[in-house]
Amino acid sequence: MRIIVVANASEGGKAAAQIFSQELQNGAKVFGLATGSTPLSTYQELCDSDMDFSDCTSINLDEYVGISASNPQSYAYFMRQNLFAAKPFAHSFIPNGMAKDIEEEISRYNHLIDENTVDLQILGIGQNGHIGFNEPGTSFDSLTHKVALTESTINANSRFFSDINDVPKEALTMGLKSICKAKHILLIAYGQNKADAIDKMINGPVSEELPASILRNHSNVTVIVDEEAASDLKTVR
User: Fold this and answer.
1) Can you tell me the mean pLDDT for 85-92?
2) pTM of the model
């Protein structure tokens, strides 16, 4: 696990974009993407760059259940606004939270991941150590699945909605085993509120109670953290 400490999110975005560029130059064709505030500076750097993803495939981590792709709060909409409009991919896949048959959609997405091995997977991390929507207690063997969002995650996501009651209560997410199929994983975290989770991920026990700790079992992980998110790190393995 390689740890890169940067001054702030802007510098983190530059460091992450450099990793995207290196992977492209090395022949990467499939990119696992995430949403939320954490990857925004990275996506801005990609949009401003001369990188070309027109022959690449993107596979997103997750999507809310019950929100259409045209809804401004959907992750599909987020990706169009913050990356795809400027940097289109040949193929872009996001779970369909409006699917009539959710189990069929889950099966489709698992097959998709198996058929398109992710070269570089970008991740954020929740304050409770979740990655994707894999909350504490999720099996390390989990594949794509439907999850009931915890109160803490609903509260964290409520900043994007005018009313907390509008925040979806369920989502479809890649599982922990699905995520770890990626060849290279890039986890990014900014802010003091992520410091405890980062320290436990790197220095605590590998446990399903801290989902991100599974990354310690992966052979190629890069972690980009700003100084605040790194503030609890006393030792780095």
Assistant:
1) 98
2) 0.93
